[in-house]
């Protein structure tokens, strides 16, 4: 509800402080985001309207009168600062309109207020020792005046709550997000910048593009413990797909926006560019051939809010911002904190997870803050593998009906639970520090983030009857007689730090200079494995017996490591003029990428030299002579594949916004980027917002964009074992070489260097405040991408003579390359509707949010003038490659949420619909839409201690059973015809793409103590 106030007609009611009130817990928690907007009214009264409410985890209520709310207990966290800034913080934290004169308030210093107070008690404490006084008018509106000064001071500015466009309490995915001011005085006021506009103070409602503001409470209410899963739960345009037995992708899942690739979304921390993860997804999973950002490296307990800009923004922020921008804002409280514990497990009894959080704010004197967060998460693995139905030992005979008759007696008692398919075993420690200190006329600021994560996932089981991976020794039995399950152990370290100084000038200008460094590294160690060729080396070269080989052969090896770092220097200048705002700046960046060689045992082929078997003819007909090289399950990287590369980037931009007429905002941006490697690019953006009426506005944008080839796409190379479906539908192992474009092999084929992807974005939306409590937004978007960088299919021999020769010289059976090889079109609609009301003796917030998206590959092409030009394009890019881009993510996501609060109780209920998706993996299968139900109940035992219980996927919903791309299927019988095992395969669920995973119901309990 927007409160109308006629200045000069307000009767003052002096506030007397209520003393000795016992503090109890606040029942209306939430995050209030404030932004203020310049609207120019020549020769007219300048008004400030603005504190729109954002309470994603609790409520977004219309304030009817201050007298109805001032007796409620509220938790405050306001640092000592200038009074005008403190009053804005007060308004944010109480969701209360406050009227004050900026010129008057800025002359005084307010006190810090922390803890639970009534609103009036807090205001009295805040202004204690100043000459400022608080009054309430007959309508309940709070205002600040000088003591003994007439209440009807004409210098006063008006603030009004605009709660009709509130970001949904539960989901917090309203494209309105948090609403800021409708009108603002020309005087300088405290302003908060939102991603999507470089003009501080622009409201989300007035932005020409949709922006979601997701508060810490909204993230916490999901019940998830990972940031990626939290975002997926409350933002339908965000996907965080799972896969299994996909090497490093098991440990670091791809995160996508609007159905595009993980590398087509830019991630920021406190508005600064975030580095990518060092891993690149090369196996069959969502995002194959791309490298994204590790969304789980930042503990959720360190996050104040997340801003999601759902529109192309390369002209504003540079490369990668094709699908949009995700800005993670860290907590900045100078007092208070919390300690929390959460424990849960899946209905199958596995996946036990313990999550510990500690957050504390510290004041740095009267002018600064230091907020620190420590997080520890321990997650046990899950396993949803089917039974091993194929023969594990030699000697099986296929009968006429296709069943297998066991030969080796060990077959009858062999363990059939041989695979581990599900979430990886994971332990993560995270530390985050965010700080700021007022120095001179500005603020010195910075942050540090650090996380280390240990993961263990499983590869394919190597059974006894596997000559290449588990060679037969001289006693006519396999090296590991009962088989073995290799484990892929990853250590992911992520660190970033930033420091900068931002100063504001008297002419309403500001200057921000900063330096940011970020690095992500991943180290692979393969355990419970062997190098099969080394068994032959021990037998033929060292003369060891079979027994000695089994006790001597190493079972673990360091495979290799990858490191990616980013250094960024930014200088940003903004200036607000009478009729427009201008921003300009420059960015200098250095990207570095390294691949570190593994142990020799992890990559060497000990029984082959230059493609020729060394021990051929030495077995006497018993045992193996030529087995696979490298560590089974996850091979190593040799010194020849080591990488140490860097790239420099320099960028300049200019960005302007203006009210061309009273109700129309126009903005434009122009950016120039120069990359070492492919050269320069210029991009633009034009956008506008037209407030047709007080309740209806239209918004739209047109922009060009680009994405530079990632360092991983430019320089990653290795040879790995990948399991793919052959022409007969069987899953077979292939040694696949991934070759960088400047390699000798690629150059011999005439494959050119990668160039940037180019995009065109168009969007059009409507914002409709149906009533004071009902808000609807609809946004249509169109994204065309030319020269999209994709990884080719696994190209084998027989396609061209030049390719055959190149593969032979590289020692790989098949090869794959990164190519500018596709043009795509993406079309979609985002819909959000919110309704805030009262009922059942409490308050209710409902949110319906949906995303519908479709991506089509409209053109495929091979490099002109290269040897691949003679190969059919459908051989270079398979049906599976096209399906990954078009079909492996849900075509729609719909979320219906309700948040109910009464007294000390809060209940959060959410229904999440994951639409159909299709996977091509040897065959085609469409997986049906599913609805998952999440619920969380929270109760405050005392004013500081709360407990919660909840469930994600309450009703234990699974995706459809897998019918394609399976492995280890079959029926085995004994000599009497009795069935030993009959299984459709180990992959009960698709290992390629599972939008919500396949673990089933997760139940949890938790407790939190605030101090």
Secondary structure topology:
Elements lengths: L12 E2 L51 H4 L3 E6 L2 E2 H12 L3 E2 L2 H4 L3 E2 L2 E6 H9 L4 E5 L5 E5 L64 E5 H5 L6 H8 L3 E3 L14 E3 L7 E5 L2 E2 L29 E7 L4 H4 L6 E7 L6 E10 L6 E12 L3 E12 L17 E2 L5 E2 L19 E15 L2 E17 L28 E18 L4 E19 L4 H9 L5 H7 L3 E21 L4 E16 L3 H4 L4 E2 L2 E2 L29 E19 L2 E12 L3 E13 L4 E12 L3 H5 L2 E8 L5 E9 L4 H5 L8 E13 L4 E18 L9 H10 L3 E26 L2 E19 L12 H4 L2 H8 L5 E11 L2 E10 L2 E4 L3 E4 L2 E11 L4 E8 L17 E4 L5 E5 L18 E9 L1
Parallel strand pairs: 4-8, 12-15, 20-45, 34-37
Antiparallel strand pairs: 1-7, 2-6, 3-5, 7-8, 9-14, 10-11, 12-13, 14-15, 16-17, 16-47, 17-18, 18-21, 19-20, 21-22, 22-23, 23-24, 24-25, 25-26, 26-29, 27-28, 29-30, 30-31, 31-32, 32-35, 33-34, 35-36, 36-37, 37-38, 38-39, 39-40, 40-43, 41-42, 43-44, 44-47, 45-46
Helix pairs in contact: 2-4
């Amino acid at each position: 509800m927007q409160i109308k106030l006629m200045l000069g007609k307000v009767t003052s009611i002096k506030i007397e402080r209520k003393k000795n009130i016992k503090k109890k817990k606040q029942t209306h928690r939430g995050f209030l985001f404030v932004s203020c907007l310049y609207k120019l009214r020549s020769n007219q009264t300048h008004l400030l309207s603005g504190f729109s409410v954002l309470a994603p985890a609790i409520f977004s209520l219309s304030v009817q009168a201050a007298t109805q709310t001032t007796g409620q207990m509220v938790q405050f966290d306001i640092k000592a600062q200038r009074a005008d800034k403190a009053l804005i913080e007060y308004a944010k934290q109480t969701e209360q309109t406050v009227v004050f004169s900026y010129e008057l308030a800025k002359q005084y210093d307010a006190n810090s207020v922390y803890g639970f107070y009534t609103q009036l008690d807090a205001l009295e404490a805040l202004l204690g020792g100043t000459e400022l006084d608080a009054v309430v008018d007959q309508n309940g509106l709070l205002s600040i005046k000088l003591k003994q000064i007439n209440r009807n001071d004409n210098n006063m500015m008006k603030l009004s709550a605009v709660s009709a466009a509130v970001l949904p309490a539960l989901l917090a995915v309203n494209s309105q997000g948090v609403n800021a001011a409708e009108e603002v005085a020309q005087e300088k006021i405290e302003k908060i910048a939102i991603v999507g506009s470089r003009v501080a103070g622009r409201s989300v409602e007035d932005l020409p593009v949709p922006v979601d503001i997701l508060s810490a409470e909204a993230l916490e209410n999901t019940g998830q413990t990972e940031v990626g899963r939290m975002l997926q739960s409350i933002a339908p345009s965000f996907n965080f797909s799972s896969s299994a037995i996909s090497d490093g992708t098991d440990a670091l899942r791809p995160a996508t926006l609007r159905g595009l690739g993980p590398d087509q979304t830019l991630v920021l921390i406190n508005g600064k560019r975030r580095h990518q993860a060092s891993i690149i997804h090369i196996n069959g999973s969502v995002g194959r051939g791309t490298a994204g950002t590790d969304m789980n490296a930042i503990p959720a307990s360190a996050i104040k809010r997340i801003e999601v800009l759902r529109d192309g923004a390369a002209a504003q922020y540079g490369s990668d911002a094709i699908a949009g921008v995700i800005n993670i804002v860290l907590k900045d409280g100078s007092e208070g904190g919390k300690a929390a514990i959460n424990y849960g497990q899946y209905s199958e009894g596995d996946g036990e997870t313990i999550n510990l959080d500690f957050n504390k704010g510290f004041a740095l004197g009267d002018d600064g803050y230091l907020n620190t967060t420590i997080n520890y998460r321990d997650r046990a693995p899950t396993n949803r593998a089917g039974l091993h139905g194929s023969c594990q030992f030699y000697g099986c005979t296929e009968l006429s009906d296709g069943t297998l008759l066991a030969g080796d007696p060990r077959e009858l008692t062999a363990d059939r639970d041989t695979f581990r398919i599900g979430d990886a075993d994971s332990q993560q420690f995270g530390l985050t520090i965010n700080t700021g200190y007022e120095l001179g006329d500005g603020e010195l600021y910075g942050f540090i983030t650090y996380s280390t994560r240990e993961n263990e996932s499983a590869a394919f089981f190597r059974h006894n009857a596997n000559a290449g991976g588990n060679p037969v020794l001289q006693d006519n039995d396999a090296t590991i007689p009962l088989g073995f399950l290799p484990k892929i152990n990853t250590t992911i370290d992520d660190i970033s730090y930033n420091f900068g100084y931002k100063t504001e000038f008297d002419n309403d200008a500001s200057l921000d200079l900063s330096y940011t460094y970020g690095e992500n590294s991943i180290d692979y160690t393969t355990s419970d494995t062997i190098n099969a060729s080394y068994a032959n080396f021990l037998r033929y070269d060292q003369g060891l017996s079979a027994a000695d080989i089994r006790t001597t052969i190493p079972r673990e090896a360091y495979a290799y490591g990858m490191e990616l770092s980013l250094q960024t220097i930014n200088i940003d200048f903004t200036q607000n003029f009478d009729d427009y705002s201008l921003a300009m700046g420059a960015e200098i960046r250095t990207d570095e990428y390294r691949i570190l060689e593994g142990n020799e045992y992890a990559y060497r082929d000990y029984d082959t030299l230059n493609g020729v078997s060394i021990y051929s003819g030495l077995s006497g007909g018993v045992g193996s002579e030529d087995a696979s090289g490298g560590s089974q399950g996850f091979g190593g990287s040799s010194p020849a594949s080591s990488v140490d590369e860097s790239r420099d980037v320099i960028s300049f931009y200019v960005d302007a916004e203006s009210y061309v007429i009273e109700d129309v905002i126009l903005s434009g941006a122009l950016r120039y980027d120069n990359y070492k490697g492919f050269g320069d690019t210029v991009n633009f953006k034009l956008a506008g917002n037209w407030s047709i009426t007080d309740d209806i506005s239209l918004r739209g944008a047109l922009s060009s964009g680009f994405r530079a080839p990632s360092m991983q796409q430019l320089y990653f190379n290795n040879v790995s074992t990948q399991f793919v479906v052959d022409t007969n539908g069987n899953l077979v192992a292939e040694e696949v070489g991934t070759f960088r474009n400047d390699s000798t092999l690629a150059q011999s084929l005439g494959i050119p260097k990668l160039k940037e992807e180019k995009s065109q974005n168009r969007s059009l939306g409507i914002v409709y405040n149906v009533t004071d409590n009902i808000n609807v937004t609809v946004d249509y978007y169109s994204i065309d991408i030319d020269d999209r960088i994709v990884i080719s299919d696994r190209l084998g021999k027989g396609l061209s003579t030049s390719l055959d020769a190149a593969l032979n010289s590289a020692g790989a059976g098949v090869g794959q390359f990164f190519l500018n090889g596709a043009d795509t079109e993406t079309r979609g609609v985002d819909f959000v509707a919110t309704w805030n009301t009262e009922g059942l003796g409490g308050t209710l917030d409902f949110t319906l949010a949906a995303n519908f998206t479709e991506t089509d590959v409209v053109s495929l092409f091979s490099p002109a003038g290269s040897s691949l030009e003679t190969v059919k394009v459908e051989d270079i890019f398979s049906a599976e490659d096209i399906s990954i881009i078009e079909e492996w993510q849900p075509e729609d996501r719909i979320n219906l949420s309700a948040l109910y609060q009464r007294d000390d109780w809060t209940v959060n209920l959410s229904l999440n619909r994951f639409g159909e998706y299709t996977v091509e993996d040897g065959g085609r299968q469409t997986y049906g839409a599913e609805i998952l139900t999440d619920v969380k109940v929270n109760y405050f035992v005392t004013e500081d201690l709360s407990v919660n219980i909840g469930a994600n996927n309450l009703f234990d919903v699974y995706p459809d059973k897998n019918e394609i791309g399976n492995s280890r299927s079959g029926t085995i019988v004994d000599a009497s015809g009795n069935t030993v095992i009959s299984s459709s395969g180990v992959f009960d669920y698709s290992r390629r793409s599972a939008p919500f995973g396949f673990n089933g119901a997760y139940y949890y309990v938790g407790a939190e103590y605030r101090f």
